[in-house]
Structures are given as structure tokens and as C-alpha cells.
Amino acid sequence: MPAPRPLDEVAARTSFARFRVASIVEGIALLVLVVIMLMRYVVFGGDVPFTSVSPFWEQVSSVWSPIHGLIYMVYVVLGFDLWMKMRWGLGRMLLLMFFGVIPVLSFFGERWTHQKVEADLARRPTLQDEDRA
């Protein structure tokens, strides 16, 4: 069985740095979206959604929702980039995407991913191993 291809540690760390920022931004954006939805439908929405909605919160929601969608797409692309650089399995990719769906989970997911990246870079061969020797 051939030896596994070495990882590019510099590229992996750069990719993780971008993913880390995206995780934090996505977490904040999702929390803002949840607050907007609560204000729109629970606090000012009345009993029947979409009929007695406050025009202000309806406008805020219509502006913020696509912005959050764009932020999530950037998060997914950067998660995919990290997944490719680390050569992880499909399950890890799905987990990275899932972290951005539930409020505050992206913050915990970022910490967990950081631990996995560090552990994998310490355990697996990298292109930079020769430079250290």
C-alpha cells in the first residue's frame, strides 16, 4: 500500500484561518437572523404569521435574510476548501456544513475543527516535514 500523500501544512493552516473567520461571522449572522425572526413573528407578529407582521421587521427580514444566505454560502465554500486541503472523509464535510445551520453551533464547531486540524497536522505527513528535519 502506498504511503499517503503529504498534506500542505501552510495551505491547510491558511484555509483553516479563513474558515475560522467564516465560522465566527456565520455564527453571528445566524444569531442576528434568529433575533430578527423572533421580532418579526413572535414579538410583533401577532397570532397569524405573514398577515399582521410589523412592516419594519418585515423590511429588516427581507434585507437580512439574503445577506445571511450569502454569508452561509461563503462559509460552505470555505468549509469545502478546508475539507479538500485536509483530505477528510465525506462525513467530516457534512459535519462542517451542519455547524453553520444551528445557532451558536458554529462557535463550538470552529473549536472542534481547530482541534482536528492541529491533531491531523501533527499526526499526518506534511510537505513541510522535510524543512524541519
Q: Can you describe this structure?
A:
- The chain is mainly alpha-helical and 133 residues long.
- It is built from five helices and no strands.
- The chain has helices at residues 9-43, 55-86, 90-99, 105-123, 129-132.
- The longest helix is centred in the first third of the chain and has 35 residues, at 9-43.
What structural category characterises the helix and strand content? Answer: mainly alpha
Shape summary: elongated
Gyration radius, in Å: 20 Å
The number of distinct β-strands equals 0
Largest sheet: none
Strand content: under 5%
Helix content: over 70%
Uncertain parts: none
Q: Report the end-to-end length measured between terminal Cα atoms.
A: 25 Å
* Assembly category: single chain
Count every helix, treating DSSP H or I runs of 4 or more residues as helices. Answer: 5
Tally the structural domains: 1
Q: What average pLDDT do the residues reach?
A: 89
Give a brief rundown of this model:
The protein has 133 residues and is an all-alpha fold. The protein is built from five helices and no strands. The longest helix is centred in the first third of the chain and has 35 residues, at 9-43.
For the structure shown, list the relevant keywords.
transmembrane helix; cell membrane; elongated; 133 residues; 5 helices; DUF3817_TM; mainly alpha
Give me the secondary-structure topology.
Elements (H helix, E strand, L loop, with lengths): L8 H35 L11 H32 L3 H10 L5 H19 L5 H4 L1
Helix pairs in contact: 1-2, 1-4, 2-3
